[in-house]
Structures are given as C-alpha cells and as structure tokens.
Amino acid sequence: MSLFIQSIINGLNQGAIYALIALGYTMVYGIIRMINFAHGDFIMVGAYSLFYTVPLMINYGMPAWMAVIIAIAVCVTVGVAVEIIAYRPVRGAGSMSALITALAMSLFLENLAMVLFGANPKSVPAIFTLPSIEVLGAKLQWKYLLTISIGIIMMVGLQLFVKKTKLGKAMRAVPQDKEASTLMGINVNKIITTTFAIGSGLAAVAALMYCSTYPRCTTDMGSMMGLKAFIAAVLGGIGSIPGAMVGGIIVGLVEIFVKVYIAPGWYEAITYSLLIFVLLIKPTGIMGKNAGEKV
Amino acid sequence: MPKSKKLSYIINVIGILVLFIGLYGLFQSNVLGTRTSYIKGIFTTACYTIILVTSLNLLVGFMGEFSLGHAGFMSVGAYASAILTNSLYDYGMPKLLLFIIALLVGGAAAACMGVLVGIPALRLRGDYLAIVTVAFAEIIRVAFCNFAVTGSGRTMSGIAKLSDFYWCYWAMVICVAVMYMYTRSRFGRTVIAIREDYIAASASGINVTYYKVLNFTISAFFAGIGGAMYAHYMTAMIPTNFNFMYSAEMLTEVIIGGTGSLTGSIIGAAFLSALPEAMRQFSIYRILAYSVVLVLVMIFKPGGIFGTWEFSLTRLIGKVAAFIKAPHARKGGNAYE
C-alpha cells in the first residue's frame, strides 16, 4: 500500500514536470503549428544556468530558488534568439523546413552545451530544503507538492492569460488566420516572439522543478525530456493548455507505475507505445479539437 | 531498349569499374603505407553511410515525409544479420556467401519491421509521422536493450568481420543502382505524384497508403542492408548507438545533400563520413557545424545543396566530347541524353 501511494506521489511529481514542459510545446504548436524540437533543450539551458546561479544565490544569502529568475531571463533570451535567428526566416517555407530547422537548433544547442560545459554531468546544489512527512507509510516530500502546485498555478495562469487578456486573444487569433489578424492590427511577429518568450520561460521553471527532484544536468537531458513532454502534449491534444496538463500527468503516472509494477526496463517503450496508440485512435489527442484538412 | 540508353548503361558500368580499379590499385599497391587500412576503413564507412542516406532520401525526398527513426531500421538489420552470421559461422561457408546472406537477411528483417511500422504510422502525415517514427525507433532500441539474444543492453561483440571494402563497394553500387531505377520506375514516379499532391493522386485512382507503405518498406530494406554492413564492419555494437541522434544525423546529411537528389545524398554521405576522420581533433565541433550548415541551407536553399539535380556520367562525357569537337561552340550538345 505504501509503495502504491509512493508511486502515485512520484508519478504526479514526474507528471507535473512533464506538464510544465508540455505547456511550452503546446503554446508554440498552438500558434505557429510547428513542433519546436529545441524546446527540450531550453530546459537544459535552464538547468545549466541554475547550476551556475544557485551557488551564487546561496553566497549572497538569498534563497536558492531565486536563481530561477536569472534562469528564466537566460531561457527567454535563448528562446527569442532562436526564434528570430532561425525560425523566422523559414516561417513561410512550409512545415518541412520548419521541422528541420527546429531539429537543427536542437542539435546546435545540445552540442554547444557540450563544447561549453563538457560532456560530464554536473550536479546542481540542493534548491529546496524542505522536510518530508509520512503519509500511510509513504514519504511525501513537500517539494513534490510544490512542483505539483506550481504546475497547476502555471496552467491556470496561462489559461486565464490566453482567454482573458488582449495579448492572449491575439495569440489565439494568429493561428486562425494570419492575414486577417494583420488587418486587425496585430503584429504577428511580435505575438510569435512573445509566445516563444513565454514558452521558454516555462522551460526555465520546469528546469527548476526537474533539478530539485534530480539534482544533475547533462547536455542530452533536454532531448529525452523533450520527447516525453511532447508525448504528453500530443496525448492531451496539442494546442490545448489543460490537455498538456492532463497528458503530462498521465505520462508521469504511467512511467512510474510501469517502472515499479510491470517491467523496469520497458517503461520508455510503454510510454512511446501509448503515444502511437493515441495517435492512431484519436490523432487530435484527448482534449484536442479536430481542425479538419483544407484541400 | 533504345540505343542511347544502352550506351549510357555501358558508360556508367565502365565508370564504376574504373573507380573500383582505381581504388583497388590504391589499396593493393600500398602507396599510402601504414595508413592504407585506415583509409580503407573510411571508405567502408562511406559505403554503408551512402546506402543509409540514399535509402532515407527515398522517404524524405521522394515521398516528402520525414522519418526520424531510420537508425531503428538500421539496428534491426544489424542485429538480425549479426545473430544469423554468429550461428552460421562455424559451418565453414565461404565468406562471400555468408556476407551476401547477412545483407539479405538484414534487409529482409528491416523490411518486415518497415511494413509493421509503416501500416499504422503512414496514416499520419507531417510532424506527427516524424514523431511516430521516433517513437518506433525508441521502442526498437528499448527492446534490443532487454532481449537476451541481443546482449541485454550490453555490447554485442565478436561479430564476424565480413565487411571487406571491395564487397561493400559492389553491394553499395547495386543498392544505389536499384534505388535509382526504383525512383525512375512506375512505382517511384507514383510515389513522387503522391508527394506533389496526395489528394489529386488518390483522386486519380492511386492507392496512396499502399504506395507509401511500399516505399517505406523499400527504404527500410536498404537501411537494413546498411545496418548489416555496419555490424560486420564494426564487429561490436550496442543498442544505444542507434539512438535519436544518429537518425537526426542521417536526416541532416540527406537535407544538406539535397532532397530528391540521390547524387546529393551520395556526395553528402561520402563527404560527411570522411570529414570526422579528417579533422579528428575538432570532433566535438562536428555536429555543431552540421547544425549551423543545416540552418543556413534551410534559410538560403531549402531544397538542399544539390536540389533535384542528378549527376550523369553520360551527359558529362557528351559535354566533354562536344567541347573537344567544337571548343568555341556556345551550346554543348547533349549527345547521349
């Protein structure tokens, strides 16, 4: 029983991290219909900046989590730079070019990190020193609760932002019809850049959550995390913000439960099969809307 | 067969033979001294890379769909052929026969996997297909990490070293020739029609799914052959070699070379497999340079460096002949085109 509860807690924690990353995928896909393969690597960027800024914060006597502010700034800079330098020139060239460019940026960031920081994993200092409590024999760490609640806060905040604010409304208008939104006085380029900024900022928060659970960063952490989070986004229905949350939680829970109860070596295969299964049954995902194809 | 076409076939065969004899002479005469076997190794690497990249180009260039899981098919071919040759090695078969069997088995295993993956995956298009192929490749990798027969996640070593350069060269020539003929055949042209407009193609009575799965299977078959060569050249392998990165690298080579140009794939693959050896001290910058080149190619020349241009020896000879006959003529006559 305690193992079961422990698994649920671990799964929810894992799922909340995936959900935070998936939110970034969903934001970008929702607006320019492009899979930002480099999004996973933004998390890596965030994790490495935490590696350098956490000791700095501790030195100056500030709480360690304040390092996330610098990490967000770094990630937003990287995200916006990638968008302007690489994605913007190929935006009109079709989805194939966009996908290749995204892949190239992912390779670029990963290998740049390899050149800058070396191939050895770095261990990030402890970010939260929170106690843990016993619930029915399972160890419940407060930081897990924190991760889950941050995930929910982000989702609700983002949902309100997209639905209520003027900027959010513009964000929803752009994918519907670019020309018409230009005529309505929306600066499409600015909206897309803002979307990237928000997405990469979320990646920095996800990096904080990830590093508090697994205190190490490697140059290839982004691609694997990114793929899992992408699965979460597709599972929930890409383009839908609550969908990303639901998908993330499902992927996290499935992963931990397979690891603990079924076959430890096979958990990745099962996660990927889940993706294939969902895409074949309902390509738009659990909460996605069917867009229909134009001839 | 028209006379000019027959002539062009003969010219191409002679060209391939000349190249082979040149390389044979280079390696047998030992002009390069101690570096001979090293250079031979690079050429063998180039052979299987060329097969892999051209086979991926069948999907990316001729079908217009992404596969980011090509390393998965390659690993199926590699493991299937390695397991087979391990069990057949003690029967004293001639090595060439064993090599051919290994290639065919590797190709067949990968083709079976291609059908299994292709039927469900090709219902999706574009980005989703790319992701599903990644997922399938990862599933294959995880499976190979867990099966006892593939080494349970440890290095599988002691595979017979069968990939002799001369054999690999001819295998490569045959594979590329078959792929070239395939792209010019009725099937290949149908696949190109589907790429151009799948709705119009299906309205003209083409069974889109059938041709897509066929193309996918053929591509997987050649990837399996490439994998079998790889396994018998390296003699040791681990499932994690065939990861997402490797697939992405192959895709990079296809795109940089030119989607829709087998020449581009061949030159791209040959060049990029020699490059890391030539500048070993900069090896960490290699992928970094690839990705920068890839972005630049995407921005300035989205079709790749060679686009859809194909090299033709016959045309080249025709041009040279015309130039010799009338050096100042403004137009080169394309005698044999």
From TrEMBL, chain A:
Membrane spanning segments where? 16-35, 42-58, 64-86, 98-120, 140-162, 191-210, 230-254, 261-281
Sorted keywords for this record are:
Amino-acid transport, Cell inner membrane, Cell membrane, Membrane, Transmembrane, Transmembrane helix, Transport
Query: Matching Pfam families, A to Z?
Result: BPD_transp_2
Q: Which InterPro entries match?
A: ABC_transp_permease, BCAA_transport_permease
Membrane topology summary: Multi-pass membrane protein
Tell me where in or outside the cell this protein is found: Cell membrane
Top-level taxonomic group: Bacteria
Matches recorded under CDD domains: TM_PBP1_LivH_like
Record-stated family: Belongs to the binding-protein-dependent transport system permease family. LivHM subfamily.
PANTHER family according to UniProt = BRANCHED-CHAIN AMINO ACID TRANSPORT SYSTEM PERMEASE PROTEIN LIVH, HIGH-AFFINITY BRANCHED-CHAIN AMINO ACID TRANSPORT SYSTEM PERMEASE PROTEIN LIVH
Protein name as catalogued: Branched-chain amino acid ABC transporter permease
Biological source species: Kineothrix sedimenti
From TrEMBL, chain B:
Alphabetical UniProt keywords:
Cell membrane, Membrane, Transmembrane, Transmembrane helix
Membrane topology annotation: Multi-pass membrane protein
Compartments it resides in: Cell membrane
One Pfam family recorded for the sequence: BPD_transp_2
Report which superkingdom the organism of origin falls in: Bacteria
Locate the transmembrane regions by residue number. 7-27, 39-59, 66-84, 96-116, 128-149, 164-182, 213-234, 254-275, 287-309
| The name this protein goes by in its record | Branched-chain amino acid ABC transporter permease
- Species of the source: Kineothrix sedimenti
